[in-house]
Structure formats: structure tokens, C-alpha cells
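task queued by scheduler; priority normal; single chain, no ligands, no partner chains; default sampling; output format set to C-alpha cells
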Amino acid sequence: LEKALRGINPCFCVLRVVKFRRTGESSRSDEDVVSGEHEIQIEGVRTELEPVELEDGAAVPKEFANPTDDTFMVEDAVEAIGFGKFQWKLSVITGLAWASNYAMEMMILSILAPQLHCEWRLPSWQVALLTSVVFVGMMSSSTLWGNISDQYGRKTGLKISVLWTLYYGILSGFAPVYSWILVLRGLVGFGIGGVPQSVTLYAEFLPMKARAKCILLIEVFWAIGTVFEVLLAVLVMPTLGWRWLLILSALPLLLFAVLCFWLPESARYDVLSGNQEKAIATLKRIATENGAPMPLGKLIISRQEDRGKMRDLFTPHFRWTTLLLWFIWFSNAFSYYGLVLLTTEFFQAGDVCSISSRRKEVTAKCSLTCEYLTEEDYTDLLWTTLSEFPGVLVTLWIIDRIGRKKTMALSFFVFSFCSLLLFLCVGRNVLTVLLFIARAFISGGFQAAYVYTPEVYPTATRALGLGTCSGMARVGALITPFIAQVMLESSVYLTLVVYSGCCLLAAVASCFLPIETKGRGLQESSHREWGQEMVGKGSHSPGVTRSNSGSQE
């Protein structure tokens, strides 16, 4: 048809327009329009097309030169561009943050505590405090980092938290006495509390179909980070000691800090903060790297000044979601770290039924008695880490089939069931199988929560919602040693009932979540403002939206 039209009149041209649906799928269509002697090449978003000059000097009016008055949102652009080279780069950088700033710094707790216990002759309660102070720092900062990310940008909050952790992580290696390392490790924990915001930034650049799988695969980087930390400890501890281990463990953060300059700010955040040009530039950059076209039309902006406010998590639309998610995250961390502690106790006893008798036979010993970690201990740490891979694979397979809510509920239920089976006096082999199944599913459920939480909250409160949930998880991590270690000395079965009952309640809470996010795009703003955006889109008035104050942008 194009060739035929050109044969009749050379002034005819074909303008290619990218159409898009609300589902995010894009298709190309050819529309014939009367134009000038030159073809119009569309690259990126054209907010305004210049008049086209004809041979006689006349100009085609702008409304004829622009064949569409469509508007689109960031969600539409992300879906139309799809998954490509940009997202692959972002996956590696996000994974580096997860491995260096989270997994390695958390794994170091298992190595540092027994070493200082022996070298500085610390009593048991001071050794336990070294671990607890990191969780206190994470708990106290998670909400703050979420607020900063909602107010000043995801990239800003992430860079500050990484530089904070890097600085105090290196200083920890120079701590002269116990009190100094206690304070410095607490400050390291304060910085680690901002790491979940990397998931917020990551999720906001992912198309809907790839979002769950990509966030779940971040768990692979967790395993890589922990394995690397153990191998580093095997090489460094016998010769250079724990100070060099702390310093060298912080250096990968320096690499991530440098790569942060490549990271763009979230286009969703830019739209919400009124930076339309910056959002368009970011989307055009992604489209260029992926080699994909962008929708034609104007980008809808919905400016919102009040971002990252705690009250927004308790609006009628999100109140129950927030409360249920807090309990789910609490139960995840409470059960996950509890199982890690219980595994050591059960393996030392041989089986569950031997723990009570072993407790009675052990005589009181000095709290300063210590044992250095051996190569066998490091090997056990590696195997424990690798046991989480099956859980990630199972979660990866079911999360887009049965949904986020049912995936979390199933993970909690399997963990609860395995905990009840431990009531039986099983042998060591069966005990190992039950513990590994329980850990696989609770780790998979943890990752499912990381998928669901950024999806359920709108852009204005997404970082804060994830931050508060992460803070509640640290509360569970703080409490679980008193159950897995202190209560275990009194009653093994009561300890198992507590963990099993908690996860059973969490499974019920997962089912009662009011929103299922499977197959749903990320929401740009709150429920009320979302309706205003749809009204603006239906009116086909490009670039005219309303802010919170009701003024036209």
C-alpha cells in the first residue's frame, strides 16, 4: 500500500505508531496520513510534533501532524519496552548490593562472634549482644531509609545507606576494645537497613511478567555472597585474622558505590515528584539500551507532595494489608533465624528427643570456655546455605501459577508441618531432611514476601511500606534467640509449638490479605488518585492531570 501511494503522489508517507494496551502489551500498526515530502522518524516520546512543510510552503497544522493524542503512564512504557539489556545490567547491580551489603555482612556474624569470644575472652551474653546489636540497628533504620527513599528518591537512599555501611564496616576492623566494636557493628546494622530499597528500585523497572522471577532470583546472589564470605574467612582468618576479614568484606560495597553512578532514578518516583522531563529521559534511555520503541503521546504525571508518610499505610484501602504484612514479615524472620539456631542444637544432640536428657547431663561450665571454628564448621555453613536453593526453585515455579498469597501461605504451612513432625523421635538422617525442607520453604516464603510487598503499595509509599515490613522482620530476628536457645533449655516441645503455631497463623494471615498482585501492574499512586488518572486518560487530554491540590499540571 505504501508503494502504491508513493507511485500516485510522492508526498505521501507512512507514520509508524506504537499502540499500547492497559495490559502492557504493545503492537505496531501502519496508519496512512497526509504529510510532507519527508518521512517523520519517531524516536522516544514526542511531546510535540513540529508542523510539516509542504512543497508550496504551506504547513500542516499540528493536530494533523500528530496522528494520536494518546497519553500513557510509566507502567505502559515499561511494559511496552519489555525486559532487555538494561534490566540485565540492573539485575547484576541489584544482586551485588544484595550479596555485598546484606548477605556478607550478615554471614560475618556467624564467624566474628566465636572468634572474639575466644580472643577477647568475652562472656556468652556479650557474644550474643554482638549479633543482637546489628539487628537493633537494622530495625531502627528500616523505616527511616524507606522514608528517605520516598521523599528524596530510591537512588539517593540506596547510595547513602551503602556508603554508610562501607564507612563503618571498614572502621569496625580498627576497633580497639569490645565497646567500640559493639557501637560500630550497630552502625553497620543501621546502614544494612537500607538494602531492601534496592528491591524497590529494581521492581519499578521490571515488566509485569518478569517481576516475580527476577526478584526471586536475587536469592541466588544471597547464596553467592554467603559462600564468598565463608571462603574469604577460610583464607583470611588463619593468617590475617578477623580485622582484615571485616575490612576485606566491606570492599565489595566500594564497587557497588561506584556502579551506583550508572543507576538511574526510578521513573515512577520522578513522575510522582513532578520531574516529567527526567522520567522521559530515563524511559528513552531504557528503550535505547533495549532496542525497543516507546509509546507515542504524552506521559501522564500525577504529582504528589506528601510522600513517604506513615499515615498513608493506614488508610482504609491499605490498613489491613499493612497489619497483616507486618505479622507475615515478623513470622518469616522469627522462623527463619530460629530454624538456623535450632539446626545447630539438634545436630549437636543427634535428635530432638536427646536434647532434654543432654541438657540435664551437662554440668555447669565457665561462660568463657570457647572453641575456634574449624574447617568442618565452615563446611557445615556452606551446606546450610546451599539448602536454600530448592526453596527458591519451588517458589519460582509456583508463584506465577497459584499467586503470591497462596505461595506465602503454602510456605508457612509446610514449615509448620515439618516443625510438628520433629515431635517424633526420628533419626539424624530424617531430622536433616525435615530441617532442610523447612528451611527451603521458609526462605522461599521470605522471597515471596519481597515480591508481594513492592507490588501491593503505590509508588508514593512503596519504599516506606517495604522499610516498615523489614523493620518488623528484625523484631522477629531479635526475639527468636530467646525461643530457640533459652526456651529450648526448658522444653523442646514448647519451642516447636511456638514456631509451628506462629507459622500456622502467618499462613492464615497470607490467605486473608485483601489484594492479590499476580498479573497486576505497579500502582503509581493511591487508590483515590488512581481514579483521577484514569479520568484524565479517558478524556484524551494529553498532559492534563491533577495534583493533590487539584490544580492542573
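post-processing summary
- The first strand starts at residue 13 and ends at 20.
- The domain at 308-350+370-517 is CATH 1.20.1250.20 (Growth Hormone; Chain: A;).
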